[in-house]
Amino acid sequence: MVDWKDPLPVTRQCALLDLPRSTFYHVPKPVSDEELVLMKLIDRCHLDYPFLGSRRIRDWLEDEGHCVNRKKVQRLMRTMGLVASYPKRNLSLANHAHKVYPYLLKDLVIDRPNQAWATDITYIPMARGFVYLVAIMDWYSRRVLSWRVSNTLDASFCVDALEEAIERHGPPEIFNTDQGSQFTSDDFTDVLKQHGIRISMDGKGRWVDNVFVERLWRSVKYEEVYLKAYDCIGAARASLGRYFTYYNSKRRHQSLDRRTPDNVYYEDAARLAA
Known about the structure:
single chain, alpha/beta, Nucleotidyltransferase, domain 5, five-stranded mixed β-sheet, 12% strand
């Protein structure tokens, strides 16, 4: 973190952190009420039709009565961290300086808790503004092991969620993410390496590689977020906390033989340990 009070010049601090000075001095432009409405609509559209790119989302918005050019749609999608799920030519990494790891879950039988965890980030609209939500899920039980909200897309809130999950539940064998810069960063992957966790990453634009987290986002948004209008980040954090408690302990899943994630995670872990 750059510190104005440090005797080391800001230019040198930015260089040591590999942070462009323009990024440090940049003051974000407030998002207008009109754009907040568009972002909420884009979020719903992307959740229902993840294969739509900016051109088709622009057309969808027009059908909904909102005439907006494609460049604005592209800019808002970047702000929200949204990418269409279809494959593209000349795919570029989220950060060329970061290593990308192979996908390890293809055809792998997931038959026990803590065998594989997965994570992702999603956009959460509020009454005025928005935040980002990261969650870490156990693939076998669908249990949400930890989560965090943040008003920025830096890696720190993802690292905090990861460290909390490991501290509470011990390390998994495999950890799967997408290729977002938060998850390919050294700050994030170093934690995984320190605990001997094998790193797996989705193919670029391959949302199906992380399908259980994508299904979680659908549940979170239609059962919680879209029914609320959080007035601040504290309200969002408190309400999401209540929802995740319900999701883990009360919400039964057909795919889990109508058991809850808590039931599957703790009971099956105890059975295997016996």
